[in-house]
């Protein structure tokens, strides 16, 4: 039996996500945007809730196409509010639209969102050596800094906890615990 991080339940969706996605460095703007949106909707909820609705989010938000999302009309917004397959939070849906617009502006300024976000860690993952649950932070001074910068650029629902979760998910930090079989694979 494989040792996994403390937060992984027996749910096959969680196991699959942990074993194949979480903590793997992502440099692709499309995937970075998807995770940003999912993390935004996760604020205040459990990650498994989001994972279970991921395909619904994908359908509802045009496969996370930020070019399309940035141009959503009021009608599309109202349609999303009625979509029982996603989290129907008015502020988070509005934030998704404005975040798509801010995302495009960052791409225009830096050439890609990836160049912008990865510059905070000099282009390579921070390798942490956490042993147990208590060691893993919810925020760091770096996630505080990134959060502040994103907000300055017009992003919403990007508090330090959301940003740190995004950093973990996209491999900007390796927060697999040292006893997890993925720790060395993501190192």
From TrEMBL:
<dbReference type="InterPro" id="IPR011257">
    <property type="entry name" value="DNA_glycosylase"/>
</dbReference>
<dbReference type="InterPro" id="IPR005019">
    <property type="entry name" value="Adenine_glyco"/>
</dbReference>
<dbReference type="InterPro" id="IPR052891">
    <property type="entry name" value="DNA-3mA_glycosylase"/>
</dbReference>
<dbReference type="InterPro" id="IPR004597">
    <property type="entry name" value="Tag"/>
</dbReference>
<dbReference type="Pfam" id="PF03352">
    <property type="entry name" value="Adenine_glyco"/>
</dbReference>
<protein>
    <submittedName>
        <fullName>DNA-3-methyladenine glycosylase I</fullName>
    </submittedName>
</protein>
